[in-house]
Design brief:
single chain, 342 residues, alpha/beta, Quinone Oxidoreductase, Chain A, domain 1, Rossmann fold, 2 domains, 6-stranded parallel β-sheet, 12 helices, 29% helix, binds nicotinamide-adenine-dinucleotide, binds zinc ion
C-alpha cells in the first residue's frame, strides 16, 4: 500500500509502497479515505528537537482520519466491513491505575498513532477496536476526518462551564477556531478570539466568534471595555502555546475564572502565581480527548447544529502531499485535508 513515511532521521517525508499493517484478534483494519494534517505532522516533517527525540524511523505518520472498516479481528463483535469510522489517536495501556478506573485519557503509558506506532497517512491503518469511533451514516467525510483535533477543541472548550460566560480563545489555529464554535454553541455570551493572523481572524468570525482581537495592535483590557465587559474573562482557552499571550490572558481574567491550557509551549513560561492565588483562578492542562465522552459530545453537537466545516480550508489528493503540507505550514489556512481515495 501507499503511505507517507519518515524513512530516516532528518527533515522530509516520502510517499512509499509499504507492507499492509498486521492485524491482531482485537484489531480493526480500516481503508483510509481522508486525513487531516496536524501541527504534530509538521514537527515530524521538519524534524525539530521534539521530533528528533520522539520519532523512531521508519514510521508511517498521521493520526487524523476517517475510513471504512475492511476487516475485524476474531474478538471484535461491534463493527463490520463497510462501517465509517475514525480513530482515537491515543492508544492506552489498559492496565494502569487510571485505565482500570475507566479514566483512559489519564493513562501515562499512552502510545501515539503516527508518532510511536504506524499511523494513518496510508491506504490502510490498523487500530485496537477500543480506539475506533463508529460514525453515524451520512456524516460529512471531511468533518469526520478531523474528529481528533475537533475532540481537542471540545475537551478544552467544555472543561469549564461556558453557558452565559465570557470566553477568550487565545490562538485561532484549527483547534482554536473549532473551540470558538463550540463555546458559542454551548451558550457563551461573548467569544473573543485573539489571533495575530488576519486570515484566521476572519475565519474565527465565520465560526461564531463574537469579537476578534489582533494582539499586536489591541490590548485585551481595551477590548473588554469596548464590548461592555466589567470583570474580565470567565473562561480562557489557551490554544497558542505563546508565552506572552498566556500571561496576558491570565491578567485579564475574572476572579474565580478558569483557564484550560491546550497550547504546547516550546519553552517554560513564567507566570505571576499571586494572580492565580488572589484571583482564585483554576488552571487546567488538557491533553487529547476524554475517551469516549468527548467523542460522544462531538457527535451529538454536530447533530444538534454545530458546524465546524468552515475550519476546513484546503483539500488535496495524498499524491500532492507536498502542496498540502505547505498549505498547512503557511498559517493562511485552517484544516488541510488529504484524500487517500484518489
Ligand atoms: P496552530 O499552531 O495552527 O495555532 C496556534 C495559533 O496561535 C496560530 O494561529 C498563531 O498565529 C496563534 N498565535 C501565535 N502567537 C499568538 C499570540 N501572541 N496571541 C494569540 N495567538 C497567537 O495550532 P493548532 O493546531 O490550532 O493547535 C493549537 C495548539 O495546541 C498548538 O500549540 C498545538 O501544539 C497544541 N496541541 C495540543 C494538543 C494537546 O493534546 N494538548 C493537541 C493538539 C495540538
Ligand atoms: Zn494506562
Amino acid at each position: 500500500m501507499q503511505a507517507l513515511v519518515k524513512t530516516a532521521p532528518g527533515p522530509g517525508l516520502e510517499l512509499r509502497d509499504v507492507p499492509e499493517p498486521a492485524m491482531g484478534i482485537d484489531d480493526v483494519r480500516i481503508a483510509v479515505r481522508k486525513t487531516g494534517i496536524c501541527g504534530t505532522d509538521l514537527h515530524i516533517l521538519g524534524w525539530d528537537p521534539w521530533a528528533a527525540k520522539t520519532i523512531k524511523p521508519p514510521l508511517v505518520v498521521g493520526h487524523e482520519f476517517v475510513g471504512e472498516v475492511l476487516e475485524v479481528g476474531s474478538n471484535v463483535r461491534d463493527l463490520t466491513a463497510g462501517d465509517v469510522v475514525s480513530g482515537e489517536g491515543h492508544v492506552v495501556c489498559g492496565h494502569c491505575r487510571h485505565c482500570r478506573a475507566g479514566r483512559w485519557h489519564l493513562c501515562a503509558n499512552t502510545v501515539g498513532l503516527g508518532v510511536n506506532r504506524d499511523g494513518a497517512f496510508a491506504e490502510q491503518v490498523v487500530l485496537p477496536v477500543t480506539n475506533v469511533w463508529h460514525h453515524w451514516p451520512g456524516i460529512d467525510e471531511d468533518v469526520a476526518a478531523i474528529f481528533d483535533p475537533f475532540g481537542n477543541a471540545v475537551h478544552t472548550a467544555l472543561s469549564f462551564p461556558v453557558l452565559g460566560e465570557d470566553v477568550l480563545v487565545v490562538g485561532a489555529g484549527p483547534i482554536g477556531l473549532m473551540a470558538a464554535a463550540v463555546a458559542r454553541h454551548a451558550g457563551a455570551r461573548f467569544v473573543v478570539v485573539s489571533e495575530p493572523n488576519a486570515f484566521r481572524r476572519d475565519l474565527a468570525l465565520r465560526m461564531g466568534a463574537t469579537h476578534v482581537v489582533d494582539p499586536k495592535a489591541q490590548q485585551l483590557g481595551d477590548v473588554q471595555r469596548d464590548i461592555g465587559m466589567v470583570e474580565g474573562f470567565d473562561v480562557v482557552l489557551e490554544m497558542s502555546g505563546n508565552a506572552a499571550a498566556l500571561r496576558d490572558a491570565l491578567g485579564n481574567m475574572a476572579h474565580g475564572g478558569g483557564m484550560a491550557i491546550l497550547g504546547i509551549p516550546t519553552d517554560e513560561i513564567p507566570i505571576d502565581v499571586s494572580k492565580v492565588v488572589f484571583n482564585q483562578l483554576t488552571l487546567r492542562g488538557i491533553y487529547g480527548r476524554e475517551m469516549y465522552e468527548t467523542w460522544y459530545q462531538m457527535s451529538v453537537m454536530l447533530q444538534s447544529g454545530l458546524d465546524i466545516s468552515p475550519a476546513i480550508t484546503h483539500r488535496y489528493s495524498y499524491r500532492d502531499h507536498e502542496a498540502a503540507f505547505a498549505a498547512a505550514r503557511s498559517g493562511d489556512s485552517g484544516k488541510v485535508i488529504m484524500d487517500w481515495t484518489k
